[in-house]
User: What shape does this take?
Amino acid sequence: MFSKIVVHRVGNKINGESLILSQEELQLEEGMAELLENYFLGSFKSEETFHFYSDSYLVNNPVYSSVSEIFDDKAKFMWEAENIAKHLFEAAENPRVQGGELFIVYFEDEREGTERVDKIGIFKTEKRESFLKIAPSEDNFEIEKDQGIGLSKIDKAALIYNNDKETGYVLSVVDNNKNGDMYYWFEDFLKVKQRDDEYFHTQEALMVYKDYITKQLPQEFEVSKADQADFLNKSINFFKEKEEFKLDEFASEVLGDEHVIESFNNFKTDYEQDMQINIAEEFPINEAAVKKTQRHFKSIIKLDKNFHIYIHGDRQKLAQGEDENGKYYMLYFEKEV
Assistant: This one.
């Protein structure tokens, strides 16, 4: 349960809206505190984590600086929460960004796995939902329309763990309402990057391989759409079945041909340089990252506007040819299900 909470109203300065700052912490009944905690934390479903960064020194990142002060001295909570709200107000450079309530919350001595760690939550509500209020009136009922905050999911949220301060802390971040501005929360306000961990390496290794199979491989080698689908299936199965990724093992089992392996390694090097990242050649495979990235691995052959063939298994059960009626695929199967 959180020990401190304050709420500010942060409008969009571009649209002439104001910043309204609270002078005191919220005092909540236990039932309301539990409701808010479930609302705040309910959107953190991904294992993807981030860290603060700065173009110069970390201390020059306003949110990093404020949360560091709070972690060091909780007596500074109100002062630094106000600074965070002021920074968010200044970060709005797009008229499409919606104003809303900004909650700053301190979670004290929370259990995280086998350890206990303090956390600071930054949550912003933006969308308003219509609802009906129904109340009895003598022998009838009265219905009144009103608007409020829906409790299904928070619009924007960041949860900062008091770990790894020297490298920018560990954060979970979500933005469920980008308002047509994908940089406002992650970049303009928080200024965070994805952490270089097993989730990141799993995700990036899968994406660089997908890009290679769908874009580069057909340019260098004579491969059919069925062959490409087979490569994609083999790769995702490799990541599902193995606990650890080793590039040499992956290349041997999935790519096979030495010329294809050389081509892929060259593509990976260029990808890392273009994206300014480094994908490790050995790392533990993160199951959550595989599950999330799998949606991009769609092994589908689209035939004109008539048919789609979804390939999930044995490539040998699919044959391709051409006769007087045109090109065709032959599918071999044992039974219909």
